[in-house]
Design a protein that fits this description.
This protein is of the alpha/beta class. It has eleven helices and 13 strands. The strands form four sheets. The protein has a five-stranded parallel sheet, sandwiched between helices. It has a three-stranded antiparallel sheet with strand order 8-9-10. A hairpin with a 6-residue loop joins strand 11 and strand 12. The longest helix is centred in the last third of the chain and has 29 residues.
Length: about 290
């Protein structure tokens, strides 16, 4: 059964956005991937899939029925509340609307936050991108575009530990949410790094993936060297032992790659392109083994 609400077929919508905010245009850069409705209707909450709601805090009562209906069906992906009242009044706004704070709620003043969330869902990358971040004295708090919350101590990550205490709050979130950046220290941290710091199992998987990546590149470097007729001892600026370790999968440096490229009479870009072509070669799996 199809239900048309405000001209929208709410039963077949994959991503439904209730833009119940006169300033919604500041939060939505591209609505082509969404079924957009402007007025709340409970039937949307009862029928639509993947519901997103943009609403000022003071107007929560007007969307409460739709929000509750979508949430009961586990189809409320994000309740994006613009903070148009003092932050301490947000709980009162929820009580006034007869709603409770939900995991998939995010309160914002910066319109980049809902823009990141909505764009991430259109790209199916909501689990990889960051919606917002905040800092306490010793901890970093991050919310993904899937509205999953993470927190990590600055001292638990080597990169974060290098940021002086006075600089910790001076960060920016990348425009599309790829990372949190501290310009003064030139440190970037993404969700994968945060998850690896929090969860030993995730860290082990990340380390295994990195080892496989390094092994593949090491094998590609060896294959290209052999095809060129070079010996490990013939790479100017690198010892035979250094080359052997690189080819066994030890992480290399920009300078080492530059010297390898020069030994092959290639500039660095050409050399890296040849390595990339060899990395995708199935024969490398046998070389790694």
């Amino acid at each position: 059964m199809q239900i048309s609400v405000n001209g929208i077929d709410a039963s077949t919508s994959e991503l439904t956005l209730l833009a119940h905010d006169p300033r919604a245009g500041e939060a939505v850069s591209d609505t082509r991937s969404f079924r957009v409705v402007r007025r709340p209707n409970r039937q949307i909450g009862e029928r639509a899939r993947n519901v997103f709601v943009l609403v000022p805090a003071t107007e929560l009562p007007e969307v409460s029925e739709l929000v509750s209906a979508a949430n009961r069906r586990h189809q409320l992906r994000a309740l994006l509340i613009r903070d148009d009242v003092h932050p301490t009044s947000i709980p009162q706004m929820f009580e006034r609307a007869g709603l409770r704070m939900m995991r998939n709620t995010i309160v914002y003043t910066d319109f980049n936050v809902p823009r990141r969330v909505l764009n991430a869902w259109t790209q199916n990358s909501q689990d990889e991108l960051i919606a917002k971040a905040s800092v306490s004295q010793v901890r970093l708090f991050v919310v993904s575009c899937a509205l999953q919350s993470y927190e990590v101590a600055f001292d638990s990550m080597p990169s974060l530990k290098r940021i002086p205490a006075g600089e910790r709050a001076k960060f920016i979130v990348d425009e599309d949410g790829s990372y949190v950046h501290w310009p003064a220290s030139d440190i970037h941290v993404d969700l994968d790094a945060i998850r690896a710091a929090i969860d030993p199992e995730v860290r082990a998987r990340a380390e295994a993936a990195k080892a496989l990546h390094d092994s593949r590149y090491g094998a590609a470097i060896a294959k290209l060297r052999i095809a060129t007729g070079l010996k490990q001892a013939q790479i100017k600026g690198l010892s035979e032992r250094q080359v052997r370790r690189i080819e066994k999968g030890e992480a290399t440096t920009y300078e080492a790659l530059r010297r390898l490229a020069a030994a092959h009479r290639l500039n660095l870009d050409e050399y890296l392109r040849k390595l990339a072509a060899n990395v995708s070669n199935a024969a490398l799996e046998r070389a790694i083994a």
